[in-house]
Write a structure and sequence with these properties.
- Helices cover 61% and strands 0% of the residues.
- The protein is mainly alpha-helical.
- The chain has five helices and no strands.
- It is flat.
- The protein has a domain of 52 residues.
Length: 119
């Protein structure tokens, strides 16, 4: 039997993005366990360094929302402006940002991944 569902380019993009997101998360989890390159789903280890060091581990790897890890702070300092200009250029927002104050106000949330950019 044939499927009547025709996937749109948006559906395909979501599927590909989700697939690579999960592969990246699995690879990162395997790197923490000393296995690289390995994108398979890792065995779950709740506290890899024990209860005593687990809070420090979460803070250092950026997995606590209330603490900015030194690594993330360095990335933000080094690459934020370049990334911001690259995203604006790739989305053809240069002229839209200059002329529209509503879009200009949405740019920081869009860059942070908190919202979609609506014209």
């Amino acid at each position: 039997m044939y499927s009547t569902h025709v996937s749109s380019p948006h559906d395909k993009l979501q599927s590909i993005t989700g697939r690579y997101l999960y592969k990246a998360q699995s690879t990162l989890a395997n790197v923490e366990r000393g296995s690289f390159p390995n994108a398979s789903k890792p065995q779950v280890i709740e506290q890899p360094f024990g209860a005593k060091h687990h809070a420090d581990f979460l803070a250092a790897t950026g997995r606590r929302l209330d603490v900015v890890s030194p690594w993330h702070a360095w990335l933000q300092d080094q690459y934020y402006d370049d990334l911001r200009h690259h995203i604006i250029r790739k989305n053809n927002l240069g002229k839209a940002v200059i002329g529209n104050s509503r879009i200009k106000a949405q740019i920081p949330k869009f860059l942070a991944g908190e919202t979609d950019l609506t014209a």
